[in-house]
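Hey, I'm writing a tutorial for new members on how sequence and structure tokens pair up, and I'd like a real worked example in the thread rather than a made-up one. If someone can provide the structure for the chain below, I'll link this post from the tutorial.
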Amino acid sequence: MADWIQHLMNSMGYLGIVLLMVLENLFPPIPSELIMPSAGFAASRGKLNLALVIASGTLGSVLGTLPLYYIGRAFGEKRVIGWADKYGKWLTLSGKDVKYADDWFDEHGSKAVLFGRLIPGVRSLLSLPAGMSEMPLPKFLLYSALGSGLWTAALAGAGYLLGEHYDRVEQYLGPISKVVLVGLVAAAVWFFLKRKRGHTES
């Protein structure tokens, strides 16, 4: 995959970075932890400009958030609550649980989008609840751009400094992203079981 990413950037330049980061948001197996350090390495060799690499990565990352955001918007809170009340018992999920989660996102959504863009394994998933909770698009884009800008700058900077060893960034962050994802799934299961127990006791 590293060779394919390098080839695409060599042939398409900054547009290739934009396209790769769009795909990274839609297909998480394409990791930004490999794309941006590779672009930073290209900048260290003088083939690309580091500032434009970061800008391209940020633009692609923000554009990549929009499909899931609009899917969440299209489904909306009411549809998901209705689905949860009808089928969610198999997942110990109720409409009240969805409403609670949506209310939480309404209150903390800006911070969730901003800091969530810095967490591997979470970045691509945040757009869905943001759309479901009908976060205003300008606000969503602003916090997505800020978080994504910090993330792409850190990765591209690491690739720039590491040079030919840029792939070490993905080697270190890849396992971390898997641990984070497993931890979030475990936390979600614990949350729903706890609420289910609370409903049973009441």
